[in-house]
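Materials and Methods. Structural model of Large subunit GTPase 1 homolog. The 548-residue sequence of Large subunit GTPase 1 homolog from Anopheles melas was retrieved and submitted for structure prediction as follows.
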Amino acid sequence: MGKKKANQLGRSLIKDRFGQGNRKTVADGSMLHTTEVQDGYDWGRLNLQSVTEESSFQEFLRTAELAGTEFQAEKLNITYVNPKSKVGLLTTNERVEIIKKQVDMKDLLKIPRRPKWTKDTTAEELLLAENASFLEWRRGLVALQEQDGMLMTPYEKNLDFWRQLWRVVERSDIVVQIVDARNPLLFRTEDLERYVQEVDPNKMNMILLNKSDFLTAEQRVHWAKYFDGQGVRVAFYSAVLAAEEAKKEQEAEEAAQQAAQNGDQADDEEEEDEEQDEVKERLGNLKLSVDRAEKTLEKIEEKIEDLAREEDAEPGAIRNSPKLLTNAELIALFKSLHRAERVTKDIVTVGLVGYPNVGKSSTINAVFLEKKVSVSATPGKTKHFQTLYVDSELMFCDCPGLVMPSFCITKADMILNGILPIDQMRDHVPPVNLLCTLIPRHILEDTYGIMISKPLEGEDPNRPPYSEELLLAFAYNRGFMTANGQPDQSRGSRYVLKDYVNGKLLYCYAPPGVVQDEFHRFPARKKEEADIKLLPPRQQRAMKVRSD
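The predicted structure was written out as tokens:
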């Protein structure tokens, strides 16, 4: 019954609105708006339109019209981009020119300074001075971007985060910048090192190259020599490897303790023979002797390496070891570095600063062997600096994750280096094209077990694959398809780019002065090259790049 009444009510409303009897007409009986009536004058020539409501953008255009400017839309100004092109990539000359410009202007890339203050300075005066100094710093960076056309990474614009950095620097004896070993110079902030020395010449700067397990021993030697020449102390470390080794040691100790407890219980139940006790004792002594011998050999090898490096180095110069440090070695290094007067008596305070995704929190967690700091790839996870005691002689001062200003060539570089989030990118073509220029075709095919379309006749047979060629093959192989049955390139691009950021697709940048092709050598092809014509016809059609 209710349903029938609802239908009748609906019909009544429709009749009331559109019925012939109640049709609302203008004077001449038509249903046209007065601006559309052809009553002797062409109103359309005036670009006239009845407006009762408008958005902020429309209001802006209306104001511009009142100022004497009329905007007209340009129709059919669509540009078709050929997928068989290096979209978003710079030419070699353009890239070299930008890098040269960045080197010339690197001294202009600064971090905000804390204004000078005394005991007589009030909180309000200090706050005003900090705000004024911060505003001036931001204006300088904007001018650098707009006037000089320099592309910069996103940087922290919240003054509270920089206040935390100022306090960490003031409280620390050693300020450690944690960088990604695959591209250390992008994440290194030279102006921070200058600021630390401005605050107190007794403070030390250091760079911790995390994720150094991605580097070979030869690559670490190249970077150690480079930073030797720069006069900067560096250490090579891997938070992931250190945490795994620490867990193995803990498990071994727990197993040994459990075995000892089981042995004690067995001793309580029945007496063991003296020969078994003697064998256990000998085995234990033998194990200790082997461990001591291994440590002695490692120390001898380190001394040989250091002696060899000392012969090449100048007197008084910094000599960095290319050795991949363990937790214990890293802690010992921190304790031994700072010999001057300390901020906190009898305690070495190490301030840790770093970009997101370089492993700052993971480093702290690996050293403590338990989760002390929340791990996140989002800047600002830690809102205030934290002090963490490693032992009675060493304390960590963890700074909130700060994204510091740095020069970058393109946005595609920022995505590949983990500075911009992959899930929020709008255009996947430029970063994937850049990835294809860095990672050879055969590495992509071996890693994913795919077959990428070969260059056509007349094209360079050794050219890198285009973004669409890689993503069509990858998405089809993984079953990522759109609603209309085409390989989903956008979804596939996120998987490929994340594999690059995580190191599955490995590319390590060479230090200045070292040839990139000699620094990073890719392994040979593992699988035999197959002909794409042998693939099923459906897959061939899906992998075909549309150039029209």
